[in-house]
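Lecture 7 notes. Example A: sequence first, then its structure tokens.
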Amino acid sequence: MTAVSGPVRILLADDEHLIRGAFAALLALEDDLLVVAEAASGPEALAMALAHRPDVAVLDLQMPGMDGVKVATSIRDQLPGCRTMIVTSHGRPGHLKRALAAGVRGFAPKTVSARQLAEIIRTVHAGNRFVDPELAADAISAGDSPLTAREAEVLELSAYGAPVSEIAERASLSQGTVRNYLSSAMTKLGAENRHTAVRLARERGWV
């Protein structure tokens, strides 16, 4: 029995409405691609994926509520038939490594042309992988993050100047343990304070 093939069904998730709208309009010009759902946040993207069951989810890296890598992880676990790709204006080596670990098949900058984006979607849908060459080279030269998962978590929670007591509550840790993690992260990153540590870790995509 021959399988009936149709257009590749796509979910677009980006909190920047102009960019999402532009991508949707440009992809609509491709006969073999069909945008079936759009989302403006991480939780909405996951909900739309589960509701519409697209073939490919095109996810922004940084979205309210849940970043693209976390959405991709949830889609992988709950909707294994859907392939995921990240399109971002904030690509860092650490982001790429997290994305690949989450099963993301494509990672590209938002500067790609409409034709390139369409080709990447087709590549990902076919089960192949696309990674922006420049970003891949940066990831190789940057090396792996020296931070443990807990150190990265505590550092990320401290990014907006939250007091140790609040970080401890949100991470379900004691205040002393939080201070130890922050101190260890600062030492590993060669930072004089946690604010500098956060900046350095973000520049490398480690948080």
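Example B, a different protein, same format:
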Amino acid sequence: MYHKILMPVDLNEESSWKKALPTAVTLCRTFGASLHVLTVLPDYRMPLVGSFFPKDFAKKAHQAVSEAQRQFIQEHVPDDIKVQSVIVDGSPWEAIIKAAKKLEVDLIVMASHNKRKFADYVLGPNAEHVVHHSKISVMIVR
């Protein structure tokens, strides 16, 4: 049923993957699917924002996140799961949807972890946007 599963993670926020990862791993094992671990970086190259950062900041940020994500996968994703590291720039929910489409995934598995206000408590702002705008199935793990 599923061949490719995308799981967005915030490497600085354990709640973004703590419950979602076991679900994604189980689905991968059940269907023989590959797991695509996605981290979204803010787009530092925007003209207004970019002028405040050194010219090579985006490159260094990508290198640092790439290494952190490699370590995350090594520590938390079982060896029997075929996994791909994906790093993209942009707003989180838009980047998730765009990456899911580009990678041709069958399912997005993500956590609902922000609890700042009632609407965020129920779903989370990025999860809510992904659910409403994605044409791909989305599983929210609480």
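Note on Example B: The helical segments are 20-31, 47-50, 57-76, 92-103, 118-122, 125-133. The chain has one domain: 4-141.
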